[in-house]
Amino acid sequence: MTERAQYDAAEQRAMREQRARGEMPPCPRCAVVMTERPIGGGSFGLGYARQREWLLCPSCHRSALFDVRRGTRN
Questions:
Q1: Is the pLDDT confidence value at 69 over 70?
Q2: Hey, is 9 helix, strand or coil?
Q3: What 3-state class would DSSP assign to 72?
Q4: Can you tell me the distance from the alpha carbon of 23 to that of 41, in angstroms, rounded to the nearest whole number?
């Protein structure tokens, strides 16, 4: 089985900044526009649910997972 390379910290930071501006970033490795897949999280009964966003490259199949800040909290 081959291991897929992950994005480095600078690449992930650039993708997060582009998403914060409302842009869909291109893959830092192959320049294809990423696709978005929202996912939930958290546990029942805790009073919160973690909101995350999963960016996937349809070409090289690398991905990045980010926490989405809720508008009601800093």
A1: no
A2: helix
A3: coil
A4: 24
Cross-strand partners of 53 = 38, 66
Answer with the residue of higher pLDDT: 38 or 30. Answer: 30
Q: How far apart are the first and last CA of the chain?
A: 41
Q: Which pLDDT score, from 0 to 100, does residue 1 have?
A: 44
DSSP state for residue 33 in the 8-state scheme? B
- The residue type found at 24 is M
Residue 37 has pLDDT above 80, yes or no: yes
Nearest to 29, CA basis, from 55, 50, 59, 49 = 59
- Residue written as token pair 């800040």: 69
pLDDT digits (tens, 9 = 90+) for 12-22: 999 999 988 99
What is the C-alpha separation between 21 and 14, in angstroms, rounded?
11
| Residue-range domain boundaries for the chain | 9-67
